[in-house]
Amino acid sequence: MRAHEILTEAKATSQRLDPKCWDGYKKQGTKVKGGVRVNNCVKEELEEEFDHITRTVEHIAESHGVDAEVVWEDLESLSNDELYVFAFTQETVLEDWQKANKKDKTDGMSTKAVKAYRRENPGSKLQTAVTTKPSKLKKGSKASKRRKSYCSRSEGQKKMHNIDCSKTPDKAICKARRRWNC
To answer: Are 53 and 83 in contact (CB under 8 A)?
Structure first.
């Protein structure tokens, strides 16, 4: 049945296949245009650039052991120009998320630092602190459980390292616990 359809289509449409496309274009299959089958010519530059970006994303995904779709999701926040620069810089530029966090002068990881970390480590599920007051959180909610889990873990760290936040409030663990409202 399929062979019959192909033969019928071939008879119905005449073919005008030029041996090659114009300068700066390359053949990428064929298409029917006005009842005539013609070459599908696409710009070489854009095709090569997109292929390069795709290869870069696949390389990042492979090196971090994640799916390429996860990397594409993380890169959605970039504009087209930023994506182009990201893919075509000679050296792989890694963001220093710790530096971004110090510039923000935030106790714990700031939103900007978390985004930088996630771009550097595709597939990461890192989130910012739950800064909502405990009285405003619904009991048993996801945020409430994250906060409770962090507070209990950090309490163990404090005990293990003999840190008293009333005497040393500038310690990183003390600042982070204040941010999480522990």
So the answer is: yes
Quote the CA–CA distance of 174 and 182 in Å, as a whole number. 9
Residue extents of the structural domains in the chain: 2-42, 134-182
| Contact in structure between 140 and 130 (CB atoms under 8 Å) | no
- Taking only the tens place, the pLDDT of each residue in 41-52 is 777 666 677 777
8 A C-beta contact, residue 19 and residue 41 = no
Write the DSSP assignment of 94-158 as a string of letters. ---HHHHHHHHT-SS--HHHHHHHHHHSTT--------S-GGGSPTT-HHHHHHHHHHHHHHHHH
Q: What is the pLDDT of residues 117-131, one digit of tens each?
A: 888 888 888 898 998
Q: In what order do the strands lie in the sheet with 14-15?
A: 14-15, 36-43, 25-33
